[in-house]
Amino acid sequence: YIHVVIGILSLHIDLYLNHTDPKPDIICLQETWLTNKDTLEFEGYSIFRKDRDIDTVQHRGGEVATLVNQSILVIEIDPRKHAIKDLESIIVDIKVKEGTFRIINCYNPG
User: Fold this and answer.
1) Percent of the residues in the chain that have a pLDDT greater than 70, as a whole number
2) pLDDT > 90 in the chain, percent
3) Fewest CB within a 10 Å sphere: which of 19, 28, 51, 91?
4) CB under 8 Å to 96, separation ≥6 — which residues?
5) Using alpha carbons only, what angle is made at residue 74 by residues 79 and 66, rounded to the nearest 5 degrees?
6) What is the Cα–Cα distance from 108 to 61, expressed in whole angstroms?
7) Euclidean distance between CA atoms 57 and 2, whole angstroms
8) What is the pLDDT of residues 24-51, one digit of tens each?
């Protein structure tokens, strides 16, 4: 499931009202507006985030988060090794019995 949210309040509303039963295994979010000072936790999910540093950011906006059901084996990949330097991005490999799937969640702040 991929969805663009604007701000953390929208994120909470979207997750709790629209994704309750059954819960998705993988959720990719853009425009979370999270910073390195914000916390984000959802029971049953491993959370991978790319936030802006609130002390150096010039404006709000952007940021991405990928949520993966904790029952799934997941490995985070460094996006800098894949020439995705100017994008806010998260790369994870999902390991399931059918094989390995790469999920790339990115946002272009430019």
Assistant:
1) 69
2) 25
3) 19
4) 72, 73
5) 60
6) 11
7) 25
8) 788 888 888 777 777 777 778 899 988 7
Distance CA 85, CA 90 (A): 11
At residue 36's C-alpha, the angle toward residues 15 and 84, to 5°, is 85
Write out the two tokens for 44: 């049953």
String of DSSP letters for 23-78 = PPSEEEEE----BTT-----TTEEEEEE-B-TTT-SS----EEEEEETTSEEEEE-
Specify whether the CB–CB gap between 7 and 34 falls below 8 A: no
The answer for residues whose C-beta is within 8 angstroms of residue 2's C-beta and 6 or more apart is: 28, 105
The CA distance from 75 to 91, in Å, is 9
Above 50 in pLDDT, residue 55?
yes
